[in-house]
């Protein structure tokens, strides 16, 4: 893949390509999909040993053993949730103090007798973690350029993988993870927590029950002012990693939080699929302005070494589907703007706007062009609660994370692994949602809006319905014990 303009590859970025990783880990198989994948619609033929992962269940585990890679800003908040529902056998981070902190926090909970083994000997020590034979699942919460090589290495060494957003920011790497999953027979999943938030799960149930009628269009995305403390304030480590992506790609860098839930409601990859997208972006101004005006950004701040910011402050993308629907996807982390995921869903019988907490449903007798809000809105959503929430509400309150959604997402994944079920979010969902990043860059690359084709990562399996969040509550000995 040809790097986008303004991108000067570092050694870490070369690791992303698989060349260093392959030599270090002794991995087999194709390193990456053809560079032609950047064209958008290219779909490589399956190679030797690559078979669809659709409807492939987990093996079933008496106790799920987890290795954590990256326990900083995001992973360091998730560690105790993993420790509450699984056995954490290993922890890796480039900072030894973060590894020690996580091990202490895991043991203080009192759920396991043996402490996790720590790995903190440089950037490639994660390879020693994935080689262990006492890990069933690897959780990855590192800077984006590491997601592909770490997930690939974990699958090559016989582990399932749960990755924080995105699974990869480049299309050839996304394809490579799909193909590695198909060849190794190990699942690679986006750990999209918002799909498990209570309102989003209720919206999914309502859609499945036909409350909105025939679904027509939706919106979703990520609008969140990250300038301080995230992009410039040192909340991340290394401090500059997320900010500098805006010097590499003019793209919707992080659209999955809003896109994932509405895609699930629309049945994407389960009777419908993304077909084409077109993106538009504003001029990049906000980051350079913030750097020059905010007194907290001093003359010695690392941002003054950044290449020019080329990614627009606001991106809007329209994704059309094979069944004639469309999704408006939003992304803006640079502008002064209150947080929003822009989540809406509209059908022939009604509409819902989760961010505005309002719903209008002719199917329930709503008239007079008046939104139902407040208690009316909350009552309707509770009537369509997903079974996960009343079942786990007390534990979700205890372990928290975005109102409990973080805990629910982790608990559910571990349950699916224990019971030998298929993932709610599989590698094909993960690939489709994350493909908006490189495809939006491709659409904008020429300086004008240009439609690009979205690959069929399922290679035809999208045409039939299959279960996801709509499965009934299973018999689970863990719940009876708890």
UniProtKB/TrEMBL annotation:
It comes from Micromonospora musae. This is Glycosyl hydrolase family 109 protein. PROSITE patterns: TAT. SUPFAM superfamilies: Glyceraldehyde-3-phosphate dehydrogenase-like, C-terminal domain, NAD(P)-binding Rossmann-fold domains. Transmembrane segments: none annotated. The keyword NAD applies. Keywords: Glycosidase, Hydrolase, NAD. One of its GO terms (molecular function) is nucleotide binding. Its cofactor is NAD(+). Signal peptide: none annotated. Gene3D superfamilies: Dihydrodipicolinate Reductase, domain 2, NAD(P)-binding Rossmann-like Domain. Residues 64-189 form the Gfo/Idh/MocA-like oxidoreductase N-terminal domain. Residues 201-372 form the Glycosyl hydrolase 109 C-terminal domain. Residues 463-482 are annotated as: Disordered.
């Amino acid at each position: 893949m040809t790097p986008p303009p303004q991108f000067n590859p570092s050694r870490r970025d070369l690791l992303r390509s698989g060349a260093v990783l392959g030599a270090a880990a002794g991995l087999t198989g194709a390193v990456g999909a053809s560079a032609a994948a950047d064209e958008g619609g290219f779909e490589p033929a399956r190679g030797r040993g690559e078979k669809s992962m659709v409807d492939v269940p987990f093996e079933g585990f008496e106790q799920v053993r987890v290795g954590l890679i990256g326990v900083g800003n995001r992973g360091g908040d998730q560690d105790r949730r993993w420790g509450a529902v699984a056995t954490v056998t290993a922890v890796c981070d480039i900072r030894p103090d973060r590894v020690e902190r996580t091990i202490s926090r895991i043991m203080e909970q009192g759920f396991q007798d043996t402490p996790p083994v720590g790995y903190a000997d440089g950037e490639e020590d994660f390879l020693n973690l994935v080689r262990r034979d006492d890990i069933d699942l690897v959780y990855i919460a590192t800077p984006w350029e590491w997601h592909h090589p770490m997930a690939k290495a974990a699958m090559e060494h016989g582990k399932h993988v749960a990755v924080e957003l995105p699974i990869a920011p480049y299309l050839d790497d996304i394809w490579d993870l799909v193909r590695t999953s198909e060849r190794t027979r190990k699942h690679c999943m986006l750990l999209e927590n918002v799909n498990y938030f209570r309102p989003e799960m209720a919206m999914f149930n309502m859609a499945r029950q036909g409350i909105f009628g025939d679904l027509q269009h939706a919106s979703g995305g990520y609008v969140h002012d990250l300038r301080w403390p995230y992009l410039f304030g040192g909340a991340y480590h290394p401090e500059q990693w997320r900010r500098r992506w805006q010097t590499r790609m003019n793209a919707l860098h992080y659209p999955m939080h809003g896109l994932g839930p509405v895609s699930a409601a629309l049945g994407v990859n389960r009777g419908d699929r993304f077909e084409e997208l077109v993106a538009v972006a504003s001029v990049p101004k906000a980051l350079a302005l913030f750097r020059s005006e905010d007194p907290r950004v001093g003359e010695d701040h690392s941002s003054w070494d950044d290449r020019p910011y080329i990614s627009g402050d606001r991106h809007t993308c329209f994704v059309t589907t094979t069944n004639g629907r469309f999704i408006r996807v939003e992304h803006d982390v640079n502008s002064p703007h209150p947080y929003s995921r822009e989540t809406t869903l509209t059908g022939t019988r009604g509409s819902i706007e989760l961010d505005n907490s309002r719903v209008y449903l002719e199917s329930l007798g709503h008239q007079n062009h008046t939104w139902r809000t407040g208690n009316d809105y909350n009552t309707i959503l509770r009537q369509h609660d997903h079974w996960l929430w009343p079942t786990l509400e007390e534990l979700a309150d205890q372990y928290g994370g975005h109102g409990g959604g973080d805990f629910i997402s982790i608990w559910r994944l571990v349950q699916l692994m224990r019971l030998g079920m298929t993932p709610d979010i599989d590698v094909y969902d993960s690939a489709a949602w994350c493909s908006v990043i490189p495809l939006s860059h491709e659409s904008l690359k020429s300086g004008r809006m240009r439609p690009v084709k979205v690959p069929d990562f399922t290679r035809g399996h999208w045409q039939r319905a299959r279960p996801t969040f709509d499965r009934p509550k299973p018999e689970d000995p863990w719940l009876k014990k708890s």
